[in-house]
Design brief:
It is a single chain. This protein is α+β, with helices and mostly antiparallel strands. It has 8 helices and 4 strands. The chain has 2 domains: about 10-110, 2-Layer Sandwich (Tetrahydropterin Synthase, Chain A), CATH 3.30.479; about 115-260, no CATH class. It has a 4-stranded antiparallel sheet. Helix 3 crosses helix 5 (about 175-180).
Length: about 260
């Protein structure tokens, strides 16, 4: 006698379980939504398999609530992302009933309480505003630097007979920045720039005169030779040509020779 073996039949269903579970401190909770993917498979008819799914589906909300509660309350109410990750790690293996006849795989989504979510939105907007301000500031600095460098090169072109070293051009930077921000003032500001520079040079000359009086025991040549390094640095700061540097294509002048003593 031949016994007919029923073919394997499967039933698939989807359901969603929603509940609220407390977060750490019990002051607020998480809004939990869990998607359940059910599968019943065996050598039974679809009606029998469907009833098996119905039975376990009815008790699943209570089962999930208990499992999620222990995990979620370890996290602060504003740590929904971390809590969600921990819950899904805990539920990853799914549920299995009647030796595999019915199985259920779950994916959880956690949201903060409405009050907490509202505060997070405000904080996110504030953070976004701060980031935008810093990004805008960084962009302004970059663009201003590029434009100011062009102005500095333009202004340096008007310093005839001056070697374009860093010392000689440093004083141009504040004016270059000003003109980068207000290019329409170029006609007036450039004239003012050179007037101020002339006043600085005049002050430098007066300072040299005062210092030279302190060296009355030495002649002028000895004074210059003794202070050659300091004088050269000061003149480079003012953009003044040193002896031998009037031609920008020539190498820097040789140091001044020391005076030979004529004393016995």
């Amino acid at each position: 006698m031949t016994v007919e073996v029923p073919e394997i039949t499967s039933v698939h269903r989807n359901s969603t379980v929603r509940f609220e579970t407390p977060a750490k401190g019990d002051g607020f909770g998480f809004q939990v939504e869990i998607r359940c993917d059910w599968c019943a498979e065996g050598r039974l008819d679809e009606q029998t398999l469907g009833r098996a799914v119905d039975g376990y589906q009815a008790v699943m909300p209570q089962r999930l609530t208990e499992r999620v509660r222990d995990i979620a309350r370890r996290y602060e109410p504003f740590r929904a992302e971390e809590a969600e990750r921990a819950v899904n790690d805990h539920l990853r293996e799914g549920e299995c009933f009647e030796n595999g006849l019915v199985s259920c795989r779950t994916v959880a989504r956690l949201q903060p309480a409405p009050e907490v979510l509202e505060q997070q939105r405000k904080a996110a907007l504030e953070l976004q505003d701060i980031e935008h301000r810093y990004a805008k500031s960084a962009l302004q600095v970059r663009l201003l630097s590029e434009v100011a460098e062009k102005w500095r090169a333009f202004l340096a072109g008007g310093l005839a007979g001056v070697r374009h070293n860093d010392d000689a051009l440093t004083w141009l930077t504040p004016w270059a920045v000003l003109l980068a921000e207000q290019p329409d003032k170029a006609a007036t500001e450039v004239g003012e720039m050179f007037r101020q520079r002339q006043n600085q040079v005049d002050g430098f000359v007066k300072l040299l005169e005062k210092q030279s009086k302190a060296y009355q025991a030495q002649d002028l040549f000895e004074f210059v030779a003794t202070n050659e390094h300091q004088l050269g640095h000061a003149m480079r700061l003012f953009g003044l040509p040193l002896p031998g540097e009037l031609d920008s294509g020539r190498e820097p002048a040789e140091p001044l020779p020391r005076a030979r003593s004529t004393r016995d």
